[in-house]
Specification:
Distance between the termini: 59 Å
Largest sheet: 9 strands, mixed
Shape: globular
Number of strands: 20
Bound molecules: pyridoxal-5'-phosphate
Amino acid sequence: MNHFELRGGELFCEGVPLARLAGEVGTPLYVYSTATLERHYTVLRDALMAEGIRGEHGGEPLIAFAVKANSNLAVLKTLARLGSGADTVSEGEIRRALAAGIPAEKIVFSGVGKTEGEIAFALKSGVSEVNVESEPELELVSKVARSLGTRAVIAIRVNPDVSAGGHEKISTGKADNKFGVSFSEAERLYAKAANDAGLRPVGVTCHIGSQITDLAPMAAAFAKMRGLVERLRAEGHPVERLDLGGGLGAPYFNTPEPPPPADYARMIAQTMAGLDIAYSFEPGRMIAANAGVLVARVLHIHARPEGRKFAVLDAAMNDLIRPAMYEAYHEIVPVKPRPGAPEVYDVVGPICETGDTFTRERALPPLQAGDLVAFLTAGAYGAVMSSEYNSRRLVPEVLAKGEDWAVVRPRPTYEDMLAREAPAPWLSV
Ligand code: PLP
């Protein structure tokens, strides 16, 4: 469920007409809904709690929002107020989470290639745990921790070798993906870490992929994770934490409906029945995707005499790269739909790449130059992946709350864009 709906023939975000935002902020722009972010977080938390899935000391499980999905500080602050933690993959993301008021003890540091500097920053910040993805990384984390005179709290990331479905570029849980270690390696590394003066292993973690709409592969992976916890405990390790990653899908309208959080929570409760452990989760997409749209303006309709019709927008692949990168589908809705029979369009951006195509041969309500359209389900992996390719200014972001709204990342000026670069000394004369 989300809070983008047609009212009186035009699309609103909560109590704010998108056309007004487009008029005041300009297009393209991202618009996020506070109520939708809050709803998705609380629905997941409540579903987990209802199934008795708990965190440390019997409290709420740690829901560490995957910052990579949407790292805007206002979005993070909105979630922080609900008690959210953060799953981070870089020093920049840790800094963002801290700046948004997420306490360090709710921040998890993941990622296959953490640098020495990033590990040191994470440990000095006091993050909750470093999720270690390989043996060389285990050794590096230990070295950095010992140099800081501390013991790093770590979890071992396991690659459960299950196929989660979805696009191959967002599958992470197969043995040939770069993430994590096998179960046997995890046991060996856990024992190695337990004997290392720089490390304190507290648990295990997995994340098998993204946009998962079938619970079966998750259930299979989680059952294997349970087995691992039991084996480690039998070997004498007090395994305290189990991080089950993110991955639940969002509705993009062309894929099967993602399972409701209640079904996800029930599956976990059944798979883990009787296992006493503190759970954490790293959802990104299921919280943020449906809470954001990208609004763009139709620059013109280019109708070829042979019949193909291009709706050329002022948004491009640099603003929303998912269709070009993952062949992703986004529902496209006119902000003020015109009456009339649907027409078939290729919806494209202005960038000089054929890949700058949002969709081909899509039946949409009739469009004219100057119309606004909204790409739905664009709140995750949207603005975070935007760039200035073709020297287009970075797309701005707006957060709405009821009838209120604020620009939470302004569009830079061209002067800002140019001022970030410095001429080489020999070029400045
Ligand atoms: N955790 C880890 C380690 C990830 O790599 C990702 C996504 O790539 C996530 C969590 C978030 O995934 P999703 O947005 O599908 O929930």
